[in-house]
Structure formats: C-alpha cells, structure tokens
Amino acid sequence: MLLGVNIDHVATLRNARGGVEPQPINAAKICQNCGASSITTHLREDRRHITDEDVELISKTISTPLNLEMAVTDEMGEIALRIKPHSVCLVPEKRQEVTTEGGLDVARQLDKITEFVKPLVNAGIEVSLFIDPSESQVKASAKTGAQFIELHTGSYSNAFGTENEEIEFQKLKNSAKLAQSLGLKVNAGHGLDYENVSRMHEIPELNELNIGHSIISRSIFTGLESAVKEMMELIK
Ligand code: PXP
Hints:
This protein is an alpha/beta fold. Helix content is 45%, strand content 17%.
C-alpha cells in the first residue's frame, strides 16, 4: 500500500501569520525524499490554505506525482488542464466546512461529473472521485470514465474503537471489492491516523492512502521526515 501525503496544513500554518513560513514546497520536498507516492494539495475555492502559486511551484519542482484535490467547477477544471497534475481528486466543497465533510454525490450528478472527467482524462490526467463507501456511489463512479475512486474513511475513523467501527469498516471493505470488480482502482483517506490506519491492511484492493492531518500534526513534535516514515512503516 502506498502513502500520499496531504500537505495543506503546512499552508494553514503559514497563512496564520500571513508570511512565508513554513513553506509547502519544503514539505513537499521532504515527503518526496521520504518516498511518499504522491503529494496532495487541495486548492479550495476560498484559497484558505494552498494557493495557486503553491500548486504551480510544487508541480514545477517536485517529481513525485502531484495529486490536486479540487471541486467540480469550471475554474478548477481550467486550472487542472493548465497545470496538468499527475492526478486530480474531485471532492465536494462547501464554503463553511472546516474540512471535506462528505463524499461527492456522483450518483446524483452522473452527467455533470462524466462531462467534467472527460477532458481531464483526455489530457492524460488520472481522475479520482472522492466518494462515501456505498454501493450506489461506487456503481455510479464506474460509469464516469474516472479511473480511480478514493473512499472516504471519515466515518470509519470517527467510529474507530466504538461499537460502530465494524459497520463502517465493512462499508469500506465491500465498496473496495465492488469498485475493483468494476474496473476502478481504489484509494482511501480522511481522518486516518497512526492507530486507525492499522485496519486498512484488511482491504487488499487498496492502492494508496491519502493522509494529511495526523502526519502534519505529528511532525510538529517529531519533524516531518520522521512522521512520514513512521506512517509508511505502518502501512507497508
Ligand atoms: N482525501 C481527501 C479527498 C481529503 O479531502 C482529505 C482532507 O483534505 C484527505 C484525504 C486527508 O484527510 P486528513 O487530513 O484527515 O488525513
């Protein structure tokens, strides 16, 4: 299983002071040197953390695949086609949310998302859809032309260690199996940390985990290199 590191919160910290430190590009370089399989940045509509300049710089400087998380909007589509990241992950976005709250409702917006995916795939960009682990969302995703899904692990992460853990875990496991049988490659992420990540081994279909908050949080105390390597050891 591979580890993609989401470095958005390096930008959150930088923006808290409105200055230039810490620089996301330096975080991207460290993740690259540690052997991360991808670097993820979420260019939000309100640019609350990662900026257009960050994405441009990371895309030009880093050879590790850049995974650009973005909403399904004309603006983001144009940016992706200009920058041509290795992959994009399409996410729902609400202005008031603290972080991405739920998965993309592909089943309800099948035509819109299929149209949005087409030029990206034609441009050679891998497209992933961030969805809740449900049969209807997986089946709809398989019809869009996207090559990947990323299963939202937020509910599993919140339920970890509680009586609901097994229910949430089985949703992930079943969705991953179904997705692979329909020809989709499967990633997962959101809310994963150094404890709850352990059960991801029980889902053999998983290709890559995308983890941000727990790694950046730990890096404050241990340094980013150590935080990334520790997570890589856990998911190896
Ligand atoms: N995957 C997606 C699609 C996300 O939106 C996020 C959060 O930005 C993550 C993964 C990483 O989540 P976390 O920061 O909780 O590890």
